[in-house]
Amino acid sequence: MSLFSEADEHRISAAIAEAERTTSGEIVVVVAARSDGYHYVPPLIGAAVALFVPWLLIYFTLLDMRTIYLIQLAVFALVTILLMPAPIRTALVPTGIKRRHAHRRAIEQFLVQSLHTTESRTGVLLFVSVAERFAEIVADKAIAELVPRATWQGIIDELTGAIAARRPTEGFIEAIHAIGAVLAEHYPPGSGDPNELPDHLIVLG
Cβ(73)–Cβ(53) under 8 Å? Predict the structure, then answer.
C-alpha cells in the first residue's frame, strides 16, 4: 500500500485516538488496497473475443477447422494474459460493479472489526478502497438514527477531495476529527462505553 508512509499511518492513528477522547463513541478506519481481485474479467473478455475469431477465419481464409480452433485457443490465452495485470483488469470493470464490491467490503469490515458489538451501538467505520476509488462511512444503529446521511456524505466528499488533491493523510485526519465531532455532539465522553475497539489505522492488502 503506497497511499501512506509509516509516519503518515502513525499520524492517522494518533488522530483516531485524539478524536475518541472527545466522545464515548468508537471510530475505526480501514483502508483496503482493493475490494475484489476481479480475476474473472480477463478470461471473460478473452472468451468473448475468441468467440468471434472462427467466424472471421471461416469467411476470410481457407484454413481448416483444426487450425482455426487452435488459433481461437491462442487468442483466448493471449487476451487473458494481456488483461490479467491488476490495474488493467480493475479498469475494465464498470464503475457500478466496483462500487457494489467496495460497499460489500465496507459492510464486511464493519462486522469483522466488531463495530456492531459495542453495547451502546455507536461505532462508526470510515472505509476507503483505493483501487475502486471508493469511500464510505458506515454507522451503527444508535448513531445512524441521530445523524442524517448527508452529514456523513459531506465528510466523505471532503475526504475524496483531499485525496484527489494529493493530500490523503491530511484528508483522513480531517475526516476523523469531523467524525469525532459528530459523535461528541451526541455521545460525549463518559456517556457510554469505554474504549472497546483499536484506535490504529487498519490497512488491508
Answer: no
